[in-house]
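The instructor's notes for this session suggest beginning with a concrete chain rather than abstract definitions. Hand out the sequence below and ask the class to guess, before any prediction is shown, which regions might be ordered.
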Amino acid sequence: MSIENSINYGEAAEAPRYSCALGGAYSTAVAAFGTVPILHSGAGCGLGQLFGQQYAGGQNAGGPLGGTSTPCSCLMEEHVIFGGNDKLRNLVESSIDLMNGELFSVISGCVPSLIGDDVDSIVKEFSHKAPIFHVKAPGFSGNSYLGYDLFLESIINQLLEEVPKEEGLINIFGVVPYQHVFWKGTLSVLKDLLEKLGLKVNVIFAEVNALDNFKRIPAAQLNLVLSPWNGHSVVKLLEEKFKTPYVVFPYVPVGPKETSNLLRILGDKLDISKDLLDEFIDKQEKIAYRYTEFLGDMVILGLPHAYFAVVADSPNAIGITKYLTNEIGYLADIVIITDNPPEEARDEIIKELTQNLDSTVKPDIIFEIDSYKIRQNLKDRNFIALFASSLEKHIAEEDFGAIQVSVAFPVYDRLILDRNYAGYRGGLNLMEDFISKFAGPL
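After discussion, reveal the predicted structure:
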């Protein structure tokens, strides 16, 4: 096993697997139904996200408030010199009057941050007309994963107030809209699963009434984070402001084994009856494993104990790798992490991908954002299955001799609506998508 980090911040990167902080904040706003994103930036900052985030997140449209429908101040050279405050003020006023939204999010990009526009004061001028807040998200401050955190931190600090706690209410964080290409289905499945245990679940995104969901955040009894790093600053802020404890489960659970692990952790934290939990887990596992039996011949006769590679963001990569290794019996050859997690999160990622795998074969782990270097790292390997982005689709067979499935951002070669790999039956969905690539007469 080898562990590498070949990111060099002094060099340009070919096709990194994310956008900028503004792109992340903007996409998070679009994912919160009823939220009107108001961009204080250049025109290209918004339109570029339609192609670079929405389409890349499984060919999803921008919706009624995304893409070309997004209000934007469209800053130009003159505003760099004279400022864009007046233009923003007019834009916010007209957006509130004309746009059919419940919540308005002013997202400021690089230019306002560099020239010092007083966005906070302008936003406060309109606080009496509509729920509105400001997200300061210059693109140079970080990538789109950071933009997700900035969006949530801003709404917590500017709009949320303490409310009575609701027993059994859980907020779910860390599943970043569009960057986690299965975000809609993942959140929906996990919500349904936890509600069957009698819990109340606030997933915020992929639902209607986003404003009500946001306001409900402080009422939670527990916050759950499904990432080794994303959303951590959010739940720490909520713990500080509203005394809400949190649990970190550092990946999206794929299949019965990891889903049951998550439920047992939540059961301990929320004092769920052990008998009730055991009965529920036993029933769900029996159903999932019964369905797994039907793919047995294709796994054993088609590709038994296949070596595989994963190129994905960390919570996605961990969940898929653990399922394929621990439940299907495949062998992890190499895992490339593409979301550029901070250094302090990397040891946990490495642990999940090595110590917590039920296999003597351990993958090489590489943290890389550059698509060219990712291709170089995939060369001359043993894998015959590649779970990656659509950037690897057309080179997988010719360059690597592998069967490829697009499971990570960007995904341009398949439409992803509520398809997902989370929960007890998520692994079945993953194997359907993979085995369908080579299934045929034996």
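Then share the key points. The CA atoms of residues 186 and 211 lie 21 Å apart. The chain has a mean pLDDT of 93.
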